[in-house]
Amino acid sequence: MEELTPDKATTALVTGGGGFLGHAICKLLRTRGLAVRSFSRQAYSELDDLGVDCICGNLADKDAISSACNGCDVVFHVAAKAGVWGKYEDYYVPNVVGTANIISACRAHSVPRLVYTSSPSVVFNNKPIEGQNESLPYADKKRSNYSQTKAIAEKLVLTANGPALKTIAIRPHLIWGPRDNHIVPRLIAQAKAGKLRIVGDGRNKVDTIYIDNAADAHLLAAEALQTNGDAAGRAFFVSQDEPIAIADIVNGILRAANLPPVTKRIPFTAARIVGMLCEAWYYLLRLQSEPPMTRFVAEQLAKPHWFDISAARTELGYTPRVSITDGLRRLEDWLTTHECQI
Asked: Of 179, 327, 169, which is closest to residue 241 (Cα–Cα)?
């Protein structure tokens, strides 16, 4: 693949540049010498230190998005509202309306390439997924407001593909690593509180993706839109390509945090009932925080879900350069010096 370099793309915009994945993409772009803008709800000193031009705004603000896209050669639309709980409207506005605004701004300012961060959850249909590829259909039933709105947004992006604006969607699966603000801190907090459980027997295989590999995949996608016409208008699963038992990856992260392995388990049926009760309780009390368990989370934790990433290897030239073993070692090093941030 032809490398994304300053003479190939003068300015890159990363929405959600202050987030976990967005920051990694910004950092990688800067190492290539590219001018980078970040569009986020707030300013981030870490991005300032990288030499990133930080623009504050809301994805629902069409004018702010339009201004941020003006003069860009490629847009990485990473920002989204994630989670498994909350009102549909709270997900729809940033994830769907925000994506529509990005597409509109790209067209208005003749931005030639748009790389969209999607999610494998758009195809999760409450069934095991073992080695299947992008031919999997979108889920026919709503499993979460997040997955539903991400599916709508992905369709918008891929439908927008054409000669003037080439688009692509990347579906990274369970991103983790240093600076993680979701999976790693949640596991550590629950383990320290004695509340962590393996749902089911823990032998169901899942595939994940280390943060640097996820960032690599996004830049490779942008490069593919320059050089490979077959990649445009498509979605691609990306992962470590190392499916392992979920108990092993959970305990690997705990080991990196110098914590003992989780040994307590809860049957899937019991976890799903707990999730249903938590949902009802939170709904009745109108609680905004995320429940400790939901039916969707129970299903995700108990069932295998890993994908065939052959398309990403072939069309994008993607190969995970950081293995799970090396990633856990890097995570351990980071946690040793950043434990106060978890």
From this structure: 327
Amino acid type, 270: A
Per-residue pLDDT tens for 254-274? 999 999 999 889 888 888 888
Indicate the residue type of 5: T
Contact 76, 117 (CB under 8 A): yes
Phi, psi of 114 (to 5 degrees): -135, 120
Pairing state of beta strands 35-40 and 11-15? parallel
Alpha carbons 264 and 202: distance in angstroms, whole number:
10
Q: Any idea which residues carry the catalytic annotation?
A: 146
Q: For 213-261, how does the pLDDT look when each residue is reduced to its tens digit (9 = 90+)?
A: 999 999 999 999 999 989 999 999 999 999 999 999 999 999 999 999 9
CB atoms within 10 A of CB 88: 12
Contact between 15 and 175 (Cβ < 8 Å): no
> Helix and strand tally (H, E) in the chain?
13, 15
For residues 158 and 152, the answer to whether their CB atoms sit within 8 Å is no
Distance of CA 126 to the CA centre of its chain: 20
Tokens 């339009």 -> residue: 66
Planar angle of CA 98, 65, 50, nearest 5 degrees: 105
Q: Which residues of 35-69 are buried (b: 16+ CB within 10 A; e: fewer)?
A: bbbbbbeeebeebeebebebbebbbeebebbbebb
Cβ–Cβ under 8 Å, residues 256 and 328: yes
Amino acid at 280: A
User: Tell me, what DSSP letter sits at residue 93?
Assistant: I
